[in-house]
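Example record

The entry below shows one chain as it appears in the dataset: sequence first, then structure tokens.
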Amino acid sequence: MTFESMATSVSCPRRRLGAGGLIVIAVLIAAAASMTTALIGRAWRAAGDAAALDRGAATTYRCPMHPSVAEDHPAGCPICGMKLVEAEHRSDGPPVPDDEVAASVVSGLAAIEIDPARQQLIGLQTTDVMRGEVGGAWRTVGRVAIDETRVRHINLKVSGFVERIYVDFVGKKVRRGDPLFSLYSPELLTAQEKYLGALKSIATRSRPGEAVTADGDIVVAAARRKLELWDVPAAEIARIARTGEPSKTLTFCSPFAGVVIRKDVVEGMQLDAGAMPYEIVDLSSLWVLADVYESELRFVREGMTATLKLNAFPDREFKGRVVFLDPLLDARTRTVKARLTFANPDGELRPEMFGEVVLHGTPHRGLRIPSDAIIDSGIDKLVFVAVRDGRFEPRKIAIGQSDGAHTEVVSGLAHGERVVSRANFLVDSESRLRASLAEMSGATPGAPERARVLREHPP
């Protein structure tokens, strides 16, 4: 039997893979691909780091999605194809001492370098740390309010009926002596008749050339006093004595100047004794209620001067002074109400206006920087210091008093240093990005500098 006949006579059965076998093969392929990717990433990282150290590269570029990929020149990620991002900068200047690098490290932030072209593009500006006047001014918000000591109520001391109203709407300005309303009161009419009767009794009992008796004088004085206590004007009492005729209605006038802020009377209305038909307030002087924060309470004193700016008058500045500090602290807002008084001769200030209040105290000299240079992280106060050309390092500082424009620096900065005063939030974002990339790649801020120091100055 030949070989060909044996091959044709014996046939091998073919086996087909089932679903389970396909799944196993797919899992093995995926595992192999993952291991290959990891090996490639490690190789690229090792190659990039070695090349950067051997050739003294100035910059390291890493992939945002695969931080293990590192190169010393701009390129694409071999894994995902994304453009590599500049991760660490190295300066060609003199070596930085290791203790200086360690001192500049702030948790979550990293030192960065920005070339002059980029600085101009983002509008970055720096300002010197200088000595000057700090403090002495504290800003807060204030609300214009009525001076409670200048509020007056028009009260009735006798009942009657309103015959006529002269001030018929709220907000009307009145002067001292202006008529408010006229009232018919039987009691007032009776008191007038008694006063006239006392005057006539004295006139009939006294002889020509004789003085009025003491009893008659007392009766007239008592009748007149009763009319005065019922707020009958002195001019009206003199008219009654001169004409000898009582008046059916009496007109009540405003005892002071101001603005009517309340009116509870209409014509024909019956008013009882004790009624308050009008409420008038003098607006020639007003209060401003300002919130003084708990941290600034020690600087505020009664009698200190203050200024007020309003949106209604952007080119005006009103001057006043602190007249009262609330002895109680608001537990909800952690503030104390300060009461300031402002003159208002022209009526420009109106109650319920809001504005900015600046309390003026005594400034002192100290280190200061622009308030815009400070970044408040919620826990720490941070600034970015220009240590060399194009290099900026984050630094924690302790601050003191502030007048809004400048803030006192208690510690963390020295006279003559320069801090970023504009575009510092962009610098902060870049610094946080660099720190995050360094953390993802297993590096720490300042590690390249330390490596260079150890390489150039071995122990």
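Notes for this example: The CA atoms of residues 452 and 458 lie 10 Å apart. Residues 19-89 form one domain.
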